Amino acid sequence: MPVPFEALIPLGLITGFFGVSGFFFQKLKTSINEGQPPRFGLDRWDRVMLDRDYRLTGTQRGQAHETAAPSAFSTNSAWNLEKEHL
């Protein structure tokens, strides 16, 4: 029993829209992540390094090439300090 070609038009439209939306979603995720592919399976050390890179450069994926940290980095700590009890 043949399938009328009119039944294939909606199938083609739906498949095309899924493909186009998937392509643009992938491009959006890449552009949000500074052109890098997304990272998966980050452990605590990776998250600490991401936070350090963010405090040094202002971006999550950016890395600084200077050997010494800027002077403002000494007071820009990620660790919460305990208040002194006297």
From TrEMBL:
Major site of localization recorded for this protein: mitochondrion
Keyword Transmembrane: yes
Superkingdom, natural source: Eukaryota
Subcellular locations according to the entry: Mitochondrion inner membrane
Function comment: Accessory subunit of the mitochondrial membrane respiratory chain NADH dehydrogenase (Complex I), that is believed not to be involved in catalysis. Complex I functions in the transfer of electrons from NADH to the respiratory chain. The immediate electron acceptor for the enzyme is believed to be ubiquinone.
InterPro entries: NADH_Ub_cplx-1_asu_su-1
Keyword Phosphoprotein (UniProt): no
Topology in the lipid bilayer: Single-pass membrane protein
Organism name: Linnemannia gamsii
Family to which this protein belongs: Belongs to the complex I NDUFA1 subunit family.
Protein name: NADH dehydrogenase [ubiquinone] 1 alpha subcomplex subunit 1
Alphabetical keyword list: Electron transport, Membrane, Mitochondrion, Mitochondrion inner membrane, Respiratory chain, Transmembrane, Transmembrane helix, Transport
